[in-house]
Structure formats: structure tokens, C-alpha cells
Amino acid sequence: MNNKEILKFATVLDKAAAEAKAISQISKEIPFSEAEAYAIQFASMQKRFERGEQFIGLKMGFTSKAKMEQMGVHDMIWGILTDKMLIEANGSTSMSKYIHPRAEPELCFLVKEDIEQQIDAKDITQYIEGIAPALEIIDSRYEQFKFSLEDVIADNCSSSGLVVGEWQAVDTPLKNLNINLIIDDKQVQTGNSDAILGNPWESVIAATRLASKYEWKIPKGSLIMAGAATPAVYLEPGNVVKVEIENLGEASFSIL
Ligand code: OOG
Ligand code: MG
């Protein structure tokens, strides 16, 4: 793919997201590499920044087998979160903003100090301020929510919305925690924190590895979403969506 094509697809994806209108998979039109996929992602996010959206953090994706199997992909991915995606805890969002939204139960980490290099397991807690229960709304811009790994990377990893609950202490044990996704008072998914790379901290470490590989700084105050421990669930207007995580508490939103 040349630069012109990268910009073309970045524009197509940006428009699809802004208008909540699905497009066909890029990979069906032209094969492209993972590096080209990230170039499309950055170029399309650049358009949002130019319109005044603010970077608020990063999200890791496919950090659990449950998610990889649900979507038929084999590798970890990362995407960019902006202020426009943030939904207040216990707040609401509107179905009209999305194509076919799904919710995922997640853990969110708050970065305490700029991260500019790969951090290992023994030092990572020094860079994190708190951990919170969170929900992510993913909304693939591709028809039928179907994509290749490159397609979904180009589409900023389906990022569309997030809700972050109350921050808990950084020394909160994260091993073997029950995670429940509840919609309209019904438990629709249940999982365990160990499903996220064996330990959700590994997802933060992986984010630092990617940041160093792409020569990106993760600034102080950034959020890092660790990735879902369970498959994602489609949303319908009127749903009240809640995550409950042992030791961490809960977070919720409704979709109107
Ligand atoms: C891609 C996003 C995956 C996660 O938590 O694994 C993701 C998708 O499934 O559309 O956010
Ligand atoms: Mg996610």
C-alpha cells in the first residue's frame, strides 16, 4: 500500500465511524500488512485530533483466548482512546452513535508517570496510579462485525466507548478475580482476570512493549484498557450494562 492508499482508507474509516455507517472489509479489496494497518489507524486518528478530539489513552485487544476465539484472530492489538469515547460512570449513551455496538467487561489502569520504554513486571506498579473496573463499547466499522486482524487494527480496534468505575489502590491483588458482565440485571458473561494474559498486569506490560516498539510515549494520566476477559455482547436500546469485578467493584452505563 502506498501513502495515498493509506490516507484513502483512513478517510473511509474516519467517515464510517463519524456517520455510524458500515463499510466492507479493506482486506477484501486489497491485501495489506500489519504495519500498514497501524499506519491507517494513526492517520485516521490524526483526523480526529485535527477536529479537536483529545488523546486519553490506549486499549489493548485480544489479550484473552475468549476474545481471540470469538473474533477468529490470533494476535494482540492496540488502539487509541479519545475523550469523545468516554461515557460518565452510570451515565448514558445513544444507540444512534453506533452501527452494531457490543459491550465488554474490562479492567482499566491509570498511568502515574510518563512511560517511554518497556517496563518489566517488577517495576510496572511504580508507573500506575490506580486500577478500576471498566466497560468498553466496541463497534466495528465493518459490515457484520467481520474482519481480518489487519482490518480491525486499521479500524482503531473497533474502539467506540468506555466507562471507568472508581479507582482502587494499585496493590489490589488482580489474580483469579471473578468478572461478570450484567445486562438488565441478567448475567450474560462471566470470566476470570487470569484469562487476560494470565494476569491483567501483563497487558499493561505489553502496552509498554508496543509503545517502545513504535517509539510512542504513554503520557502521565493516560488510561490503559487491558482487554476483555470474556466474549463481547451485542447491545440493544434500553439496555443497562454493568461490570462487576471481585476486589475492584462495579461500573455501569445505559444505552438509549
Ligand atoms: C476488536 C477489539 C477487541 C478486546 O478487549 O479484546 C477488544 C473487536 O473485537 O472488535 O477490545
Ligand atoms: Mg476491549
Can you lay out the helices and strands and say which pair or pack?
Elements: H1 3-19, H2 26-29, H3 34-50, E1 55-61, H4 65-71, E2 77-82, E3 86-87, E4 92-93, E5 102-111, E6 128-138, H5 149-154, E7 159-164, E8 178-183, E9 186-192, H6 200-213, E10 223-225, E11 233-234, E12 240-245, E13 249-255
Parallel strand pairs: 1-10, 3-7, 4-13
Antiparallel strand pairs: 1-2, 5-6, 5-10, 5-11, 6-7, 8-9, 8-12, 12-13
Helix pairs in contact: 1-3
Bound molecules: 2-oxoadipic acid and magnesium ion.
2-oxoadipic acid (OOG) is lined by residues 59, 61-62, 67, 71, 104, 136, 138, 140, 152, 157-158, 227-228.
The low-confidence runs, each spanning 5 or more residues with pLDDT under 50, are: none
How far apart are the first and last residues' alpha carbons, in Å?
40 Å
* Beta content: 25-35%
Tell me, what is the CATH class? Alpha Beta
Which architecture name does CATH use? Alpha-Beta Complex
Largest sheet features: 8 strands, mixed
Structural domains: how many: 1
Q: Topology as H/E string?
A: HHHEHEEEEEHEEEHEEEE
CATH superfamily, called what? Fumarylacetoacetase-like, C-terminal domain
Shape: globular
The CATH topology corresponds to Fumarylacetoacetate hydrolase, domain 2
Total number of helical segments? 6
**What class would the helix/strand composition place it in?**
alpha+beta
